[in-house]
Design a protein that fits this description.
The complex is a heterotrimer of chains A (110), B (403) and C (170).
Chain A lengths: L2 H6 L5 H21 L3 H26 L3 H31 L13
Helix pairs in contact in A: 2-3, 3-4
Chain B lengths: L1 H5 L1 H35 L15 H11 L10 H19 L10 E2 L2 E2 L9 H22 L3 H32 L4 H6 L4 E2 L3 E2 L7 H14 L24 H26 L17 H19 L4 H21 L4 H27 L5 H33 L2
Antiparallel strand pairs in B: 1-2, 3-4
Chain C lengths: L2 H22 L3 H21 L3 H26 L11 H24 L1 H7 L12 H11 L1 H22 L4
Helix pairs in contact in C: 1-2, 2-3
Classes of the chains: A mainly alpha (110), B mainly alpha (403), C mainly alpha (170).
Chain lengths: 110, 403, 170
């Protein structure tokens, strides 16, 4: 990109990105608390992780350091591992219980 | 006029996009003609012959047929997903073509390179990103049709695509290690120069195993024979696009051929030198090759028109002959000659790859689904990984010895 | 209203829209599609922030692999519609306005703190250039080599775990 365009990249204040990250994180938290389908709950957790990634990248840009981006890389990797194992557990549970409603999966309750 | 000089990037990009879109759509249509002709000749028959001279108007007839067919939507399908799946597939397939350089970046209009729409520093990575999302077109099409065969076909097809995507990406990393960059133009520039003064320094020579893995994974990724069980007609009716009719089916069709073109373009860029010419630079006569080739083709068409064609086919083929001869003479003109070199060699190599694709389609039987998945995970992935390890060893050893 | 601002607001709107659709959809497949929309718009935001490699990794890994896994599981389990029960009256009449008021209080408190003031004053980027893949990989393979290898072992464990959990019991 030409130099003029490069300078214009930074005029969006980092606080805008942080507000967006906070909104997405809040919506993800609402999803984890209020939804009943296990898969939707897992997806809301992924939404929270994405919001956190956005905050990391915004701060990495604000301080000019690369550590934020490295951390985002690791968060994505860990999210992948977590999604894989989580969905495998969901498949196992569904085979036994025949329902994806989280209120029916209360084996540890007495 | 000032608008054009004040916003050169915007105007030139729009013009390039329009021209490339037109060229790609025509190429898609005539790729179907090419495939039908070549497969027919492999099977000892003629292929399309009557609709226009040598079947050249067949794609037009097919396109009109698709437009005029009734567009049905299954009543129990998920309407939104059913509608966006083919659009998604086609949009992604066409977006991938925007990343590809057809010629050297030195040819410029108004300061913008003519032969590429974008020159990303992470071009290769972005192309793989687009390929990753392409799985959704297939999976969502299968799911939204709300019927057994499409669902099975869609799941199998998308599972196959994501399995071979890993091998596709790994087989290319050897090339990246040698080239040291993800930018397409830099990868192509790294392939200039010659071994022994006449063998071009293309990446296929040090990375032969990588190239074979790539081409196998690419055929599997685009769901072509021998890897097309999920959409074979004798197996699952038509796989994930069973319930689609008329224009949406045409979009899936076009998306498949556009994926083929993209993968062939990528193979030429990564392994065969892109727009570089295979002949050494010392042979200055090579600038006449595009023009000479087209004029020879025109002369063959003229001979065919006079000897074999009759009636309206003769008129149509005479038009084709005139186009070839005029195109050839334009390519021989001195100010066109150096410019046309890059795109000419790129197009020739891509057509060679597409011919290879169609050739395997006409020759090989298809894999069974479990054989296909075994092949992908148990053979292709270890071989790609081994290629990566050996390449990195070979690249590091000179540094080890010198301390 | 320059182009970066327009792009930012468009992507921010799309991501919030996707998150709201994720919460509101009846069918899990629509929630998955909305989450994919969120991830793609976040990828564009990463591009705006100059992190091109992370944007590509987000699309390849997150939107192109993890979400495909979610979509596969939803299709495999044939996840039907969510059950809905209505909220209690107290939650609707008193709860929502109170939550909104609480949010305003927190925002006010944050913006008056020291850190909040520095950030809200519009700190722009420290450097103007985007981060190249080469710098990121240098950091990853030199400074952060141990976490890198640890995550590769983590992925191996996750692979084995998912395989063991999901295979048929013979």
């Amino acid at each position: 990109m030409d130099p003029g365009e490069e300078r214009r990249l930074s005029i969006i204040p980092i606080s805008y990105y942080l507000v967006l990250s906070a909104i997405l994180f809040g919506l993800g938290a609402v999803g984890v608390v209020f939804k009943r389908n296990i898969i939707t709950i897992l997806m809301s957790i992924e939404l929270m992780l994405n919001a956190v990634n956005l905050a990391f990248v915004a701060f990495a840009r604000a301080h000019g350091q690369i550590d934020g981006l490295v951390f985002v890389f690791f968060v994505i990797v860990v999210a992948a591992a977590e999604a894989a194992v989580g969905l495998a557990i969901v498949i196992m549970i569904t085979k036994n219980r025949e329902s994806l409603n989280i209120e029916r999966i209360n084996l540890l309750k007495f | 006029m000032e608008f054009i000089t004040q916003h050169p990037v915007l105007v030139v990009s729009l013009v390039k996009i329009a021209v490339l879109l037109f060229i790609v759509m025509t190429a898609l249509a005539y790729l179907t003609w090419f495939e039908r002709k070549v497969v027919a000749r492999i099977q000892s028959r003629w292929g399309p012959y009557y609709v226009g001279a040598h079947g050249l108007l067949q794609p037009l007839a097919d396109g009109l047929k698709f437009l005029f067919k009734e567009d049905m939507t299954p009543p129990t399908s998920d309407k939104f997903t059913y509608t966006i799946a083919p659009f998604l597939a086609l949009a992604l397939a066409l977006t991938a073509i925007a990343l590809i350089p057809f010629g050297p970046p030195s040819v410029q209009i108004l300061g913008q390179p003519v032969f590429m729409i974008s020159n990303l520093d992470i071009g290769l990575l972005f192309l793989f990103a687009i390929t990753s999302i392409g799985v959704y077109g297939v999976a969502l099409a299968g799911w939204s049709s709300n019927s057994k065969y499409p669902l099975l076909g869609g799941l199998r097809s998308s599972a196959q695509m994501i399995s071979y995507e890993v091998s596709l990406t790994l087989s290319v990393v050897g090339v990246l290690l040698i080239a040291g960059t993800l930018n397409f133009n830099d990868i192509i520039s790294g392939q200039s120069g010659y071994y022994l003064h006449f063998i071009p320094r293309w990446h296929v020579i040090p990375q032969l195993v990588g190239f074979l893995c790539y081409i196998t994974a690419a055929i599997a990724e685009t769901n072509r024979i021998p890897f097309d069980l999920p959409e074979a007609e004798t197996e699952l009716v038509a796989g994930f696009h069973t319930e689609y009719s008329s224009f949406k089916f045409a979009m899936f069709f076009m998306a498949e051929y556009a994926n083929m073109i993209t993968v062939s373009c990528l193979a030429t860029i990564l392994f065969f030198g892109g727009w570089l010419s295979p002949f050494p630079d010392s042979w200055t006569g090579q600038v006449f090759l595009p023009g000479a080739g087209l004029v020879l083709l025109g002369m063959y068409c003229a001979w065919d028109t006079i000897i074999n064609m009759r009636g309206i086919a003769q008129l149509q083929f005479a038009v084709v002959t005139m186009l070839c001869l005029v195109g050839g003479s334009i390519c021989l003109m001195p100010w066109v000659r150096p410019v046309i070199q890059g795109p000419f060699w790129f197009t020739t190599k891509v057509i060679a790859f597409l011919f290879f694709y169609v050739w395997t389609r006409g020759t090989l039987p298809r894999f069974r689904y479990d054989q296909l998945m075994d092949f992908g995970w148990k053979l292709l992935l270890p071989v790609s990984l081994a290629n990566l390890v050996v390449t990195s060893f070979v690249l590091v050893v000179p540094y080890l010895r010198h301390g | 209203m320059s182009v970066p601002f327009l792009v930012f607001f468009a992507c921010a709107f799309l991501s919030v829209l996707g998150a709201v659709l994720l919460l509101v959809s009846w069918e899990p497949i629509h929630s998955a599609l909305s989450l994919i929309l969120v991830m793609m718009s976040l990828a564009v935001l990463y591009l705006l922030l100059g992190a091109e490699f992370i944007a590509a990794v987000q699309i390849i890994v997150y939107a192109g692999a993890i979400m495909v896994l979610f979509v596969f599981v939803i299709m495999l389990l044939n996840a039907g519609n969510e059950e809905r029960t209505d909220w209690s009256k107290i939650a609707k009449v008193v709860g929502l306005p109170m939550a909104f008021f609480l949010l305003l209080l927190i925002a006010r408190g944050l913006s008056r703190s020291v850190i909040g003031a520095t950030i809200a004053n519009g700190v722009g980027a420290r450097s103007n250039a985007g981060v190249s893949t080469r710098d990121l990989s240098t950091a990853l393979f030199r400074q952060y080599l141990f976490p890198f290898e640890a995550t590769s072992i983590l992925i191996l464990i996750a692979l084995l775990g998912a395989w063991i959990l999901a295979r048929k019991d013979d």
